[in-house]
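Standup, Tuesday
Yesterday: got the pipeline producing C-alpha cells again.
Today: sanity-check two examples.
Blockers: none.

Example 1:
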Amino acid sequence: MKPINLEMMQCAQQRQNTLTKPPGSLGQLEHIAIQLAGCQGVVCPQIKSPWISVFAADHGIADEGVSAFPAVVTQEMVKNFSASGAAITVIAQQEKAAFEVVDVGVLNDVSPLPNLISNRVAAGSFNFAKQPAMTDAMLRSALQVGKMAVDRALNAGADLFIGGEMGIANTSAATAIISQICQQPIADLVGRGTGVNDQQLQHKQTVLEAALLLHQAEMDSPEAVLRCVGGLEIAALTGAYLECGRVGLPIVVDGVISCAAALVAYEMQPQLKPWMLFGHQSVEPAQKAVFKQLEVTPIMDLEMRLGEGSGAAMAIPIIRLACALHANMATFEEANVSDAN
C-alpha cells in the first residue's frame, strides 16, 4: 500500500486551526479535508474527477430463497445501468462522475451494451450453502477485474474511486463475510436486503448459519472467507480497493456489500485504511459491525439500502464542500478576526 502523506495531513490540520471558526466546529468535514490532504499530498485537496464502477454478478445462494427478487433482476438492472435509468447513473450524471458497469459474473451475458465492460469470470458464483462460492482461479480472476477498473479510472485522470455492486442475494454473501471476520452471530447481523418478510428473514438466517458451519474449517484467512462465502462482484470490489491503496487513489465505500469487500481488503492489507472514506450508514445491521471493526464513522445517514454505489456517490458533494471550505475560508489573520485566547 502507498503510504499516506502524514506531513501534509499535519499541515492541513494546522490550516484548519487558523480558519475563522471554533476548532472542530465543522466536525467530519474537517476530517475529510485533512484525510484527503494526506491522500493527495497537498495542503488543500480537490475532487474534480470522481469515477464510479458498478460490478455485477449473480449468486448461487439465491437458489436458497434468501432474496425477495428473482436472480433475473441482476441482468435486468445491468441493462438499466447501461441505459442510464438507475439511481446511481442519475447521481453520476448530476455529479459529472465517470460511470461504467462491469459484468464480472451475471448469469446470462448481456453484452454488448453502452457503458458495459464485459470481464466475465463465470456465470455467477456457486451456491455456498452446498460448496464454496468460488474456486481459487475464480477468486484470482475476480480480484483482477477490480484492479483493471482502477487502472481505467487512473488512465482517465480520476481522483476519487467509488465501487458499486449489483447482484441478487449479495446481502447474504456480505453478511456471511462480516459475521465470519468480525466473529459476530448471524442473528445479530442479518438484514432484510431487498425487502424480505419476517418468515423469509428467519429462513435467510438459518441458511447463512448452516453455510458458515459448512465452511468453518476452510476459512482460515480473509481470502478464504471471500472464496467460500463471497461473490464475484464482492471479490472485484476487494481487488479494486487493494489497487486503489497500491496506487494512491482515495476511495468512498458504499453500503453493506461494499463494506464487506472493504473489510476483506483491510484484513489483507491494514495499511489500506487511510485511503478509505465511508459514504453512508445503511439500514443493514451488518454494516455497523464493519464500522466498529475498522473504527470508522460514515459521512451521512439517509436510511438508504439501495446499493449500486448510490450512498457513496451521494457523499461526493459533501466531500467537495469539505475541500472547498478547507481551501476557501479566510483565516483569522486574513479576516482580521480575533482568535480564541
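Example 2:
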Amino acid sequence: MNPNPHVAVVGATGAVGVEMIKTLEQRNFPVGKLTLLASARSVGKKLKFRGHDIAITELTKDSFKGIDIALFSAGGSISKEFAPIATKAGCVVVDNSSAFRMDPTVPLVVPEINAADCAKHQGIIANPNCTTAITLMALYPLHQAFGVTRIFASSYQAVSGTGAKAIEELERQVDQIVKKQPVTKEVYPHQIAFNVLPQVDSFLDTGYTKEEMKMENEGRKIMHHPNFRASVTCVRVPVYRAHSVAVSAEFAKPVTVEAARAVLKQAPGLDVVDDPANKVYPMPLFTAEKYNCAVGRLRMDCALENGLCFWVSGDQLLKGAALNAVQIAEVLLK
C-alpha cells in the first residue's frame, strides 16, 4: 500500500461522506490525493479539505483508476454496483452500507475489536451497522472478561442515522408545532417531533426489523462468537445526533459492577461516564461529535443470572460510520 494513498470518498456530499472528509483531516490521515465522488446532481459542488476546495466529480465505472482506498457511503445499491468495479481497478474498498457485511468473504471490522480480520480482505472490508458498532464498543471488552451469552437491548436512535432530510424533517416539525401549524411528514411514516417510533428499517416475517437483527448477526461475526444471541427493539427518537442503547447482558462467568467498571476503563475508544449520584451518565447531547463512545448506568441485572445492565451512547456518524471507516483505512496502512 502506498504510504500516501490516493483516497476516494464515494457519496461525498451525504451526512457520512462529509464526516469522512473531516475525519481524514482531523486524524492527519496521510492522504496523497483526495477524490470526491457523488451522483451527477452534486457535480460542481465543492467541499473543503485541508483548506482547499475540492470539486465533486461524478461516480462512473472509470472513477477508480489510480485510487488506493475508496471509502463508500452512498447506499447499498451503489456499493453493490461500484465496489467490485473499484476492486478490479486495484482499489481497496471500505464499505459503509449493509451490502457486504454478511458476505463470508468480506471482513466486518471494528478496529478496536477485530482489526486483524482486515488482513483477510479480498478487496472489500465492511463497516458495521452504527447501532451494533456503538453497542459492541462496551459489550466486547465485557465479553472478553466474562463471556457474553445473550443480550436484551433497546436502542434510542437519532434522526441523522436516516440522513440529512430527516434532520430537516425534525427541525421543520418542531417549528410547525411551536407555531401551531399542521405537521407535515415526508421521511418517516409518523411525526417524529415529540414522539418515538418503534420502527427502524423494514419488518421481517418474525416481527423484528432488519435493523434489530443486525445486532445479533453482525455481533456474531465481529466478536467471532457464533452462539451470541440478541433480542433488540430499535426505536427512532427526536434527537439530532448520536445513538444510545440500553443493554441487559448475561454472561457465562460471574460479573460484578466493580469488575465490569475496571474492564471498561481499560477499553479503547470508550469513556466510562458513570456517577449517577451526581446525575452523570452518557447522553447523546454530549457524545455527539466525539470519537469515543461513553458507557454508564452500570448495575447488576436483577432479572438475569450473571447479568449486567449498562447504557452506551455514541456518535453514529463517527464511530458508527465515518470514524470507523477511517480507522479501517489506518489499519490497512499499517
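Quick observation on example 2: The chain has two domains: 6-127+321-333, 132-316. The first strand starts at residue 6 and ends at 10.
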